[in-house]
């Protein structure tokens, strides 16, 4: 006789555990359990059949895997939590006794992350456990970065201590430094939520959101303890990731941090990057170069002078002298040897092996020749970061925007590009321009502009980065209406609406015809002018009458082939009727009815409609052959497709309308 | 009650199974009677359970339990009326039970003896003991007043004497004076204290209770402990006291270490002092400084993934899904078509924030400096956090396939053609319903039979009636079928119990063919007259059918043979060779299915007994198989081995007809419950496809036998439905069935629509017979 199986001893009943049971098993408080779950990455599961798991079932019951909870039992952090609990009890006991000094002593021992900004425990083992390989960690970096960048811009409160914010900010800046050095930033997008960045590190695409530099509004009930728990883990994680990334490009971690500069608002400039091995790297401090090193370093000064002299001889003033800095030369040489050689087939007949090709513009070189000046009203931090990440070495900005600029002087002659985001003042410019001209030694152009440099709006930088080529600056000139800023993350799929393509390329035949007919209608309306307006009522009536008639016909006869001829006949009848009426009233027959082009179009549309109807019928027939289950599935699948296509349809319609308006204007 | 309890106890012991002795010495009578007390047992189950738990402890305990139970049970035995008597008895028992004061121990006799020594009459020594003074607590019950010593005899024996007995000293106890009636009345009016109205049995005096006794009774009535002095909660006696004793228990002197300073500690302190003096230890660090130090202590970073080893991802682990990347509409400067119109904006604002499809509205800013902070960014992040740790993750298989791939591969409409679409000819002539129609094997004429009892033959293309015969005046012609061979022109028809075989005389039939047909029909008569027919049939039995000539009148018209069977024939179907045909008469009990042999004029009844009413029967087009449809099943018999091969279960309640595909592996069946069923004979006994396209019963189903993959069914809703049914030559593929056409034309007359249909043997045309009296040709 087989052993009798008892209920609740195997299967789902044993595999799942409710949260209350889990908390009881771990002997933790609920907040501690939450913390542990967040750090260890343990999340609830959905049993296939809830009723099999527990007898007392509520809708809100959350289930965990029993194995997951079992695994939490061995967590060293559990002991820390318990210690903490004991300490808290001791403090409250001491306070209850009125023994304040004792309580204070205990408290000094307590782990108080609010005050110190870091806990007494470390989470590094958890990071290692959750991400056994570095690539795993990179894969999960999206949320981490978004969270830390957000916290870096939050105001400090009791729930979000200033220390935590400062640490987040530092970690983020360090990460940005890595991206600048490794040139691994790929794309960026200005959205209404903030700025999205996408980087590619070791083949992993990482996408994160950085809010605009404003005070964040905190609406609704937001539990900062939960977010703080996440941030605590993410800070540890990003710290270790930064270490690994920095060492992978031969830099020392943590980089030297200049408190003074940071207080002056240098941000990225407050860090000084150092090579790991000084012997191999001639310039110990790679730093955030603003081209300043050539001014400081006397050794290279001579070389630079010489080159400058050469350049002057060549009368090339546009070229930037600092480009030929010795260290950079070395860098370029390095890059050259690292790159893959191109294999060209010497003789015909061999197979061609595909090679990863560098895009026409290397991200490291996109802005490398420019000296950019940021006007006062532009967002400095994202611009500085993105320009540096795409190779720009010399960025200056107004002194208001903080420390760390290549130059604070707007009139610096080496500046090639200036990014402005202010409206053009038409009236003032001529008077002011003359006045300024007299005062300053430099030639200041109209509207306070310096000749010989390109003025662009900030979107130029983003669009150039996303398209991997420099956009023509005319379109982005100050005061010009900008072209739409498109998301670089959307992958165009077959059939979906794509705003970059012309409308004609993506609209369906029926839509195009509809549009044409509408156009023609309008055109003829316009031609005939006001004459028709008086007669329109009659026409409508006639049309209505005709419609009813034709419907009646259709009902009587279901032969589809005859329908077309029927319609023709009907239209002929109508035509004749109209003519007769016109005769009676003594008016001319309108040209609209005899427009052959329009008629052809109408015919075409009718054909299309018929075709569509036939197709629908076929589909219905085929659906009839499916089993009920499959039919449901089919309809479900079609539902989402239809929803998407109606959305696209709406977009196309809107665009058509807009284009028409534009044409008129 | 007592015996019951004993029973219970025994029972408990029996269940223990260890004590065999008790089983042996205990009488079983109780056990037997136990059955009578079953009800009581049920009530007292819990008691017995308790006992059984205790059971093994031993008998003594059990007995005590019994005693306790007995004493408890007393009240239930006594009647309510003499409650007081009961109380008295109890008090007596209590007195007995009271642990008495011990009598003075006897060994004290040397100090003061409690007896005197006297010499009795014989001169012997006699111990005379002091009178014992029985105090209240004494257990000496004899010492109670002047007790009557007459023993246990009724007092009535002394009724005639002035005394009522003798006391211990032999003196008469005189009868107490009883008052007269008046006295009694007075007594009853002013009751003395403690009056009970009873008489003491022993003394004859009225029994009065003392004050103490009354109180006792009261206490018992109230459920208190009878003895007033008994304290159920005495103070605990403290054996060990918590009070510290003043004097030490040990007189050992105090050790020195208690009062001398430790040298070791002094040494250590000196060490610290020295270190402080030398500056090796900073004695005191203010807490602020220490805190700052703590802060400055950086988190130690190292290469966490120094020796990383990729692990197989846990199959149960589901990584958190990434947030979708931003689309065009999230841009600060989106293409204008993404901006919401006024109506869309209003609708968005009207909907509840939780029901919105998008949590943002696309907005356009003409300069980057005008872009404000996003209001709900922190909230969105928070919600993402909540999702990460609180949302249950389930792996869902998204069907990322083209929905059209689900649709069956249908042949293109051009492939499906040709099939009949329109009425070509309407054949009118029958009065009443046309019951049956058949196209002849050459495809030039059709035959029809109807309610008017006639069989008519029509020219197919022109619709002209070429021949007609009235077979019966009162019975309708239920079925007409052609002999399926081209070498003859023989029509069979059934009217009532008669089956007629005829050779229609038409102009377009060649005389040679006509003659050949007549010869075939006549051949059987010669065989029959030879007397070989009756070989199988015993002389006494009536033959299942009678083959005869129908009479000269009919014979002139061309009707040559009449076969009379026992009940009305509804179905005729021919074997492909044309020598056999089968008839079905659903009302005929055991002879419902008959197989007729044309050449021998022989009729056989293959089934002695058939489960269910036979509805239809047919021969397999290729193999020697015979199909019989009863109401619910289709049975397949092997005619050579004479055995049942297969039973098909179409799953309908009442089959009307079926037809076998000319390939022989498929079968369609129609049923009166509106179903059309396609059976693949190799696949299963269940239908491969069930089609329900008709709103009324299906009368007839037919395959096209001339090479077109078509089949049709005729229904009472007045329509004929044409299907494309392609049976692939490859055995592994399933047949393709496509509904192609609904032929509407027949009118529904008294709930009957199309009664029969037949296909043209070569062309994709079909003929249908309707209840409206017409036959229609569709092409």
UniProtKB/TrEMBL annotation, chain A:
Region Disordered, residue ranges: 314-335, 518-576, 604-665
Domain of life: Eukaryota
InterPro entries: BRCT_dom, BRCT_dom_sf, PES
Primary localization class, coarse: nucleus
One GO term (biological process): maturation of LSU-rRNA from tricistronic rRNA transcript (SSU-rRNA, 5.8S rRNA, LSU-rRNA)
Compositionally biased tracts (Acidic residues): 526-543, 551-570
Pfam families named among the record's database cross-references: Pescadillo_N
Subcellular location as annotated: Nucleus, Nucleolus; Nucleus, Nucleoplasm
Gene3D superfamilies in alphabetical order: BRCT domain (3.40.50.10190)
Keywords from the named record: Nucleus, Ribosome biogenesis, rRNA processing
Assigned GO CC terms: nucleoplasm; PeBoW complex; preribosome, large subunit precursor
Bias-annotated ranges (Basic and acidic residues): 314-326, 604-623, 644-665
Boundaries of every BRCT domain copy: 362-478
Gene Ontology MF: a single term: ribonucleoprotein complex binding
Subunit (UniProt): Component of the NOP7 complex, composed of ERB1, NOP7 and YTM1. Within the NOP7 complex ERB1 appears to interact directly with NOP7 and YTM1. The NOP7 complex also associates with the 66S pre-ribosome.
Similarity comment: family membership: Belongs to the pescadillo family.
Primary role: Component of the NOP7 complex, which is required for maturation of the 25S and 5.8S ribosomal RNAs and formation of the 60S ribosome.
Protein name: Pescadillo homolog
Species of provenance: Rhypophila decipiens
Organism lineage: Eukaryota, Fungi, Dikarya, Ascomycota, Pezizomycotina
Chain's gene name: NOP7
Automatic annotation (TrEMBL), chain B:
Basic and acidic residues: compositionally biased ranges: 83-92, 101-119, 340-357
Sequence ranges of the WD repeats: 427-468, 754-779
UniProt feature, compositional bias: Basic residues: 1-11
Pfam families: BOP1NT, WD40
Keyword set includes Nucleus: yes
Location of the protein in the cell: Nucleus, Nucleolus; Nucleus, Nucleoplasm
Biased composition (Acidic residues): 35-82
Alphabetical UniProt keywords: Nucleus, Repeat, Ribosome biogenesis, rRNA processing, WD repeat
Disordered: annotated span: 1-123, 336-357
Gene Ontology annotations for the cellular component aspect, listed alphabetically: nucleoplasm; PeBoW complex; preribosome, large subunit precursor
SMART domains per UniProt: BOP1NT (SM01035), WD40 (SM00320)
Domain BOP1 N-terminal: 158-420
Subunit structure: Component of the NOP7 complex, composed of ERB1, NOP7 and YTM1. Within the NOP7 complex ERB1 appears to interact directly with NOP7 and YTM1. The NOP7 complex also associates with the 66S pre-ribosome.
Role of this protein: Component of the NOP7 complex, which is required for maturation of the 25S and 5.8S ribosomal RNAs and formation of the 60S ribosome.
Protein name (Swiss-Prot/TrEMBL): Ribosome biogenesis protein ERB1
Species in which this protein is naturally found: Rhypophila decipiens
